[in-house]
Structure formats: C-alpha cells, structure tokens
Amino acid sequence: MKSVSVLMSTYNGERYLRQQIDSILRQRDVEVELVVRDDGSTDSTTTILDDYQSKGQLKWSRGAKNLGPARSFMQLLADAPKADYYAFSDQDDYWQADKLAAATSRLQQMGEAALHASETQPADENLSPLPAAAGRRYLLTFGESLIFRFVSGCTMVFTEKLRQTVLARQPEYLPMHDVWIYNIAQATGADFYYDYSPKILYRQHQNNVVGQTSRAEEWRNRWQRFRKGSAIRSTIARQLLDLYSQQMTAENRAALQLFVGGTTSIADRMKILTDRRLRCADRTTLALFRLSVMLNKY
C-alpha cells in the first residue's frame, strides 16, 4: 500500500475535530500518517490531540506562534515525514473512506510531479448534504489558474516531486496555500487530475475560514475586493514569474509575462482581454476579471 502523510492545521477546532480525525484514520487501502500543527488554540483542541497521540494515532506539535492557515500548512509541508504522497486536511470536514485511495490510485498513473484534487460536497453542521452547483466543468489550464480560484486545499493529494518544487521557493505574499500550490503545479507543467466526484463532506458553519457562500454574499465579497483594488491575481503572478520562470514552458512563461506586464502597460492589458490562454470556464468570473483588467485592478 502507498503511504500518505496527511497534514492538518488546527485552531480552536474542538467542536468537529474528532469526527474529522476519525474519518482520516478510517481511510482504506493506504497507510496514513496524520501530522497536526496547532496554530495557538485556546479551547480543548490540544487536549483532543493529546488523546489521539497517546494512542499512537497521530503526531502533533504546537506552533511557536500563530501563522494563520496558509503559513501553517506550508510549515507542515516543510516538516512533513517522508511519504509516497501528501494531503492537506481541514479540521472540520468529513472524508469518505475511499478519498485517499481514489487519489493515490490515479496518481500512480501520472508523472513524477503530479497533483490530484476534487469537488467537495457541501454539508451543514450535522453533515447533512446541502445543494451543490451541478454540472460544473473547468478548463484546467495554466491561464485559468491565474484567474479562477476553485481548487480546495482539503482535496489536494500530491507527489514528493511536487512537494520539493513548492518548497524550493518561499513566497513573500501567500493569501492561501492551495492557490499557490495549484498555480505552481500548472505553471511548471506538473500532471494534474481533477475528480468531479466529491470525496469530502465540506462542512459549512459560522466559523469557517473559507467556505461556500450564498450568491448574494459571493457578489458582496467580489464587490469589496474590486472596490479596494485588491491586486491578488497580479501579485501572485509576479511571484510565480520571479520564482519559477526557469521551470516553465515557453508558452506559460510568455502568458505570465503578458499577465504581469498588463499592470504597467495599457497595450498589454488590451492583449490580455483577447488572449485565448487567459480564460476561465466560469463566465461571471471571466467577465469580472476582464473588467478588473480594463481598470487595472486585477
């Protein structure tokens, strides 16, 4: 059986933590080593972790300081014990028993540097399924990864080679670890497979760091980002170009140079609007992206 190092960052997660840990420990047909970094919990999270550790079911450590989820997961990745594959876990979801087996089975058919991700099934606090968007499909291209954020870290499973690529460079700006890792995978030509069959009950509750939102709330968030002129996309793109340009294909490098160049060149912004490489499957996201490009707020 293949080994998987499952990396979980916790912070005041006492309410749902046991259910999530149990679902990880019940994974079939893989050898699981669960490693947890606590990011400064003040509730009973660490007591729960102590209980599982005393039974030899996981290993956990307390972070020296609160890093926030993105940096905490990256620290876990840097300190992870050697395994065939690596996976991230949130503290409040619930995994189907074949989540890791399905991912590792697919990864064995892929290249040395490879990433597997999947859809999630939204669920309420009691894990009762909630309505999910039907029939979603993505382009799964490098250009789309620069525009549209849809890959969830809690679904990611990847190889040692991709782990090494990610850890070889340290970004100054890191809004979320999953966005950064997916961008790197696409930029450097790693194999990528997206499973449209969900393997996770993605629990929605009032304390979610990132979660499913209503359509109205989604639009409010988009408007706030647009109004503030948040240049998340172009900042990430500039970092990719600075840190990984030598590992990209010529086409990816050219697309990224155009994407970054648009922040200082009106001519490049006009090219971005018509470049077929810089598109995404979601029409609303694409329309808002193009508007933000015209106003140089991307």
Describe this structure in words.
With 298 residues, the chain is an alpha/beta fold. It folds into two domains: 3-203, Alpha-Beta Complex (Spore Coat Polysaccharide Biosynthesis Protein SpsA, Chain A), CATH 3.90.550; 215-294, no CATH class. The protein has twelve helices and ten strands. The protein has helices at 17-25, 45-54, 68-79, 99-107, 142-147, 160-167, 177-187, 215-228, 232-244, 250-261, 266-274, 283-294, and strands spanning 3-10, 31-38, 59-62, 85-89, 94-95, 114-118, 121-123, 157-159, 191-195, 200-203. The chain has a seven-stranded mixed β-sheet with strand order 3-2-1-4-8-6-9, with helices on both faces. It has a three-stranded mixed β-sheet with strand order 5-10-7. Helix 2 (45-54) links the parallel strand 2 and strand 3. The N and C termini lie far apart (45 Å). The mean pLDDT is 94.
